Amino acid sequence: MADGRSWFARSKVKSREVSAATDAVDIKLGNNRFQGSFPEFRITFDEGKVGLDLTYTCELPGWKPGSGKVILDDDPEKFYSICVPATRAKVTGRLTLEGKAIEVSGYGYSDHGLVTVYPHVYAEHWLSLRSFDAEHTVNFLQFTTPEEYGHRQARWILVGDNRRIILATTDFELEPRDMVRDPRWDDAWPGTIGFRASDGDRVSVEGTVAIGNLVERLDFLSKLSFLERTIASFFARSLIYRFPSEVTVHQEVGEEKEDFVLQGVSEALFVN
Fold first, then answer.
1. Torsion, Cα of 167, 172, 178, 181 (10° steps)
2. pTM, two decimal places
3. 122 phi/psi in degrees, rounded to 5
4. According to the model, what pLDDT value does residue 4 have?
5. Sign, CA torsion 192/247/167/202
6. Is the pLDDT score of 107 beyond 50?
7. Long-range CB contacts (< 8 A, 24+ apart) of 100-108?
8. In contact, 154 and 143? CB cutoff 8 Å
9. What residue ranges define each of the domains in the chain, with the CATH number in brackets?
10. Number of alpha carbons in the 13 Å side-chain half-sphere of residue 76
11. Which of 2, 13, 136, 272 is deepest in the core (most CB within 10 A)?
């Protein structure tokens, strides 16, 4: 929330309470459901103190970077893949927090990732941004592979408005600056991020992400039971930091030049 509060809900779902259609988007997990077809999807979630009922109406088509796969170790069976079914969507609905219903509206995004190895095997840290206003969208993601895979950086950026995807590419520059360190875990995230992208012809975009104060620090191990935490600690410790962000953008499309400011959410994720 804007005031710095956050909610986390977790439940165990029995196998008989899980179902997924094979000919449509319709996934059920206990009291929770994701269903619909492009361009409209609905998410319902009910876990006691936390609930939601949101409708996503997509304004832009889905997208994936190339094949969507980052192959590890030249082994086609070891990969991370991503697709973005909702690159930009109007979102309306209701949140229920500790019994209080709140009507909400805004803009949203959804991606879907698949990985065939343990998280600590393919990534050390992530940076991501989701940002919108009534007419513009800038989303990006970058992760760095561990030393075993050469500290490679896998990345993509998508720039659009409320009518079209203007630029989507894996070839762009991302420059973290003004690093801030978490004294508890010694992780460090940027205070600002510069970015530049172009199609080499008629579209160019550059901007700066000003990352605000930390609003959520999520330690996945802390949310597990003692037994689960003990087992998981043999593999990795994962921490997500989330921040409100203000994005200042200069965009050129042919002869048209435009400056605008977006509001968004940045995330830094560390896997050790």
1. 100
2. 0.85
3. -105, -15
4. 61
5. negative
6. yes
7. 104/54, 106/132, 107/132, 107/133, 107/137, 108/54, 108/56
8. yes
9. 1-116 (2.40.370.10), 118-272 (2.40.370.10)
10. 1
11. 136
